[in-house]
Amino acid sequence: MNILELSEQEIVRRGSLDEMRRMGIDPYPAALYPTDAYTTEIKETFSDDAPQREVCIAGRIMSRRIMGKASFMELQDSKGRIQVYISRDDLCPGEDKELYNVVFKKLLDIGDFVGVKGYVFRTQTGEISVHARELTVLSKSLRPLPIVKVKDGVTYDAFDDPELRYRRRYVDLVVNDQVKDIFIKRTKVFNSMRNYFNDHGYMEVETPILQSIPGGAAARPFITHHNALDIPLYLRIADELYLKRLIVGGFEGVYEFSKNFRNEGMDRTHNPEFTCMEIYVAYKDYNWMMDFTEKMLEKICLDVNGTTEVKVGDNTISFKAPFKRITMIDAIKEHTGIDIAGMDEEQLREVCRKLDIEADETMGKGKLIDEIFGEKCEGNYIQPTFIIDYPIEMSPLTKRHRNNPELTERFELMVNGKELANAYSELNDPIDQYERFVEQMRLAEKGDDEAMIIDKDFIRALEYGMPPTSGMGIGMDRLVMLMTGQTTIQEVLLFPQMRPEKVQPRDKEEAYTAIGVPAEWVAPLQKAGIMTVSQLAGANPGKIFQDLCGINKKFKLELKNPTQDDIKSWIAAVEQ
């Protein structure tokens, strides 16, 4: 790496790295380090009356207070932090004091990983600490960490810029303790749900991510190409149709935590790559699934938070079962005063115009009703509410309602103004299913790029017979948002999708040498902010001269400084 690309601290740390190696210390040792304790466990089990306990711990240096013959540092492992007391003569009992005087005091930095062997004690100020007898360098950190200070419950110099936090999640996790807690809870959510399903006797399975037909949902897919087969493939938008095939095959209950991909917009609640759970259980209907779902969510909330209530923004949400249930048509009537029952496409367009809702020509009845509900109703449901009995045009994979053929046996669970779960009494009539796929293709021909494609193999599977089945999908990222009180999906994704980092344009070396700049001065010029030759036009030659001489001296480049006349000739060559 060019030294001019480094900050002063990075240069110093690389110098410390080289000095360690000259001293015979491997800054990145390969050998196992035999840790036998964690910081939190040490504190929780310490007793002043117990025999002295020897421990071997490892972690990252997060702060240091260097004094004369004794110092303190704060060590952070995967569980928490603990103070380490380091006495020069205990660490270096012989004549050689370099490990303390040079390595610890001068060559180690905040962010470095070290191992400590010693015993646990309580300091005179009452803080449980580890008295170090041995110190081992485990990994040298070449970039400085942000220094976050907390005093009297107030955080100073917080690492809180979302752009930086999401791009550099590895730093975010180190310096912001609450971030790690979110992802610990995320794992608890998954484990609780998985245990709930397993306890009911259902089986976890895996289905293809690359699919020849993007089915199971109405969404725009990502498209790729399989070179060996010379065919287009799609990243899955849902795993529904494959899981139903397994019900056809004889499994009674199957579920999958799947990574799904939808080539659509990004906002506070949407990421193009997201995690969904889908479960299908034979011989059940959507009424059973509502009972099953609300009990599951109540259990998850208790497992993760120890209570059935969570605070999300200004709202306190209760996951105590049972949840409210209301039909979609009644919900629209409740919030708009309009009864859309029995309306055709043109009447629904008139409703959209009346309610000032945008509706384009590609939208059929289902999309129009969805727009009305989304614009006027969805955001009102803060407490968990099942919206049930959707119009048939909105649900091409759902069984017709047993009492009204214009509706389907479907529910969506709304929480905090957003959809959390979607479930059906699954359509198992192959003829009806085929006709609805055909209707979807009609919408696609009108320009609806989210309409479903006919999956003929799925129709064939249904023709072999699928028992009555209920299925449910739940957005795991949104569920984690709720269980952790977060309001943006990026906070619960370890590595959310981001735009590429902006890179300042810079000319290649040849562009500079073409106007007379020696090759060895190109990098210093760019360090001085002249990233393109065009930036030389109208520049102050005296300032550039001072900048280049300063860079040459500061970074010890040992180059022969250019003259101001040299710089004037570069500028003149650009201005010609």
Automatic annotation (TrEMBL):
The lineage of its organism: Bacteria, Pseudomonadati, Bacteroidota, Bacteroidia, Bacteroidales. It comes from Muribaculum gordoncarteri. This is Lysine--tRNA ligase. Mg(2+) 1 binds at E412, E419. The gene is lysS. GO terms for molecular function: ATP binding; lysine-tRNA ligase activity; magnesium ion binding; tRNA binding. Keywords: Aminoacyl-tRNA synthetase, ATP-binding, Cytoplasm, Ligase, Magnesium, Metal-binding, Nucleotide-binding, Protein biosynthesis. It is an enzyme of class 6 (ligase). Signal peptide: none annotated. Gene3D superfamilies: Bira Bifunctional Protein, Domain 2, Nucleic acid-binding proteins.
